[in-house]
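To the structural biology subgroup,

Please find below the input and predicted structure for Glycosyl transferase family 2, which we are adding to the shared reference set this quarter. The sequence is reproduced verbatim from the submission form. If anyone notices a discrepancy with their own records, reply to this email rather than editing the shared folder directly, so we keep one authoritative version.
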Amino acid sequence: MMKTAFATVIYKQARQYLEEFLSSVDRQTDKDFDLLLVNDNYNSNELEEIQTILESLTVNYKILDISQQKLSIAGTRIEMLQCAKDLGYDLVILGDADDTFSCNRVDKYKKAYWKNREVAFFYNKLIFDNCKDVFKTMPKRIEGIKALSQCNFVGLTSSAINMKSKVITQEFIDSLKESDSPVFDWYLFSRIVLDNGIGVYVEDTESIYRISDNNMVGVSRDVKKEYEVKKVHYSNLAKKDKYYKKLLEKLEGLDINKLTENPNHQGYWWSDIQMEE
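Predicted structure (tokenized):
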């Protein structure tokens, strides 16, 4: 029997959106899953208030309270994956606590899982609340690191992980702690692909993305911020693969002032700085 979780990290900064998130999860057409909530920074009284809301849902829920650990953004997400591993889930569908989702998302991901048991992760379309696509095009399959090396289109709000994949071992999860990446989803899926994990696009379902300047991406393009993010990202991955050592060298050789004057936006996150065709 397949064991599925819909997982997220809950945190105070997204409190005003939490009910919308929960309602979106509760409206799923396939309700055979657990809602797994990892508490980042709510205190005990605030968590009791949230639990009252959870009791009105039609889906089962579990809460992992890690608030006392005072972890980084990356650290909380790693704990979420560890918890899912410990609880024996086959498929973990991910979603940010300030976003909402198509009501068929769980159903579509389960079907994709059964058709692609060898696949390490899945991803779906991302749209704004005005129904416009965040990305103009999405590749149907990711089998090599070049697809993710220059930019990112697989986020923690629009993806799922096959916890039974040969890539997602306990050793792999432990190794994620070696890096405190400022963009953890990009680091996570890059690591999976570097370990020969394959990603597959899930058709006909969506994540509705709420973007603001509180997001790492932000609402406006910032080449200098992209440069700093990529420098950390490439430095982390250079420890794992020589391809990233070359990318880091190329990045450090660029003239950031010229890039600021002539951005080359491709439509994906962190895509203004391109070092390869």
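Summary notes: DSSP finds ten helices and nine strands in the chain. The beta strands are 4-10, 34-39, 60-65, 91-94, 100-101, 121-127, 141-142, 159-162, 199-208.

Regards,
Lab coordination
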